[in-house]
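Teaching note: in complex prediction, the entire set of molecules is handled at once rather than each chain in isolation. The prompt given to students was simply: 'Predict the structure of this complex.' The entities are:
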Amino acid sequence: MKLYNTLTRTIENFIPHNKNEVTLYTCGPTVYHFAHIGNMRNYISEDILEKSLNYLEYNVKRCMNITDVGHLTSDSDSGDDKMLKGAKREHTTVLDIAQKYTEAFKKDCEKLNIKWPDIVVPATSYISEYIKMTEKLLEKDYAYESNGNIYFDISKLNNYYSLINKNDEMVIGAREDVEKDENKKNQGDFVLWFTKSKFDDQELKWDSPFGTGYPGWHIECSAIAINNLGEYLDIHCGGVDNIFPHHTNEIAQSESYLGHKWCNYWFHTEHLNDKTGKMSKSKGDFLTVNSLIEKGYNPLVFRYMCLSSHYRKQLLFDFHNLDNMKDSYNKLLNKIKNIKDEGNIEEDKIKVYQDKFKEALENDLNTAQALTVLYDVLKSDLSGKSKLYLINDFDKVLSLDLLKEETIDNDLKIYIENKIKERNTAKQNKDYEKADQIREELQKHNIIIKDTREGTTFEIQK
Ligand SMILES: [Zn+2]
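The expected output is the structure of the full assembly:
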């Protein structure tokens, strides 16, 4: 398999450290709010990566963290604490916020057919491991104490910036959110452990040899990855905005701690943009999986949209584009529905298409090409039985529910049923204006409702 490696900036042959088991680490969400669909694009590509490796007959062991402590808004060491901000917004505790949004994230993954990683670790459950790593980094003189906090000293490394393609001044200079921190020896140094929190009301704190406090964000992923996947990691995944400083810092502290190279392949997914640029939660009104459902889209249309593009290309999201994807996805499902399960399984011919499908995946996850192979199968002179066999086979990677009888997403159904209930109540209250509004709203999403003697029924027009 060939994969693009951010570390070497080239497409390389993938050779796992242990050929019987590929280790894969994914930076998980910070669970202070719903994930936006830009985040979800990233998890879709990682899901495709894992499933492609499986299709190519590798065993994969995958681990993901859940950041439920210590993530400051700027992703460096400055800004507000995201978790604390979430708790204040919803007038509850940090732990409640973490639980609520971990569940929400899990549901979003289910709706997008993203497999939940084998090992999922909340950051708060590994505190003793961060302490252990920090102690060793202090011992080895890679870290220092300053005014109550423990910092990693980036000047101890001569390859600190190896993951990024720019010189340090450019990167640091470009970040308008970096606050000057007088405690640091070098402005690029980052926190391993805070005891001097700038937040008086910090809820979660732990005792440590360095004083009562909480860990920095970056140390989380290093400790969780090393403890669960071992000292040699094959692939580390994330979004491109994780490259610096997060992944750069992960490499620095992990390799200084271990005393050898840690991870061979760095896999990064590009941004999902809207017309104004990169999608982000700070813009206020952000799109989630649920908002797509409320607007009448099956979430798998979004997955299909992501697969139609390459993970290393920026993808422009707008509803016009999504509507086009919805049309092609529905047409695809209809074509598949019309295939008759007849004829023989033509093993030789099947293998030809499987090889083409593999070739597409092996070519740095060319999912658009993989979809073309699927369309080629539909157009081919293969028997219905062979076609259905291949569709089922390819869907192990694509995960587009291509053969599922029920194509209406359950959430969409719930949405429609709720709207119908709402309309019936309006009618009972003789609020005919509202009843008409609801009918029109549904119509906009191609949902046609009919009032019959048995009650209100609906039909989704393709
Ligand atoms: Zn991470």
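Point out the following to students. Residues 4 and 160 are 21 Å apart (CA to CA). The domain at 17-274 is CATH 3.40.50.620 (Rossmann fold).
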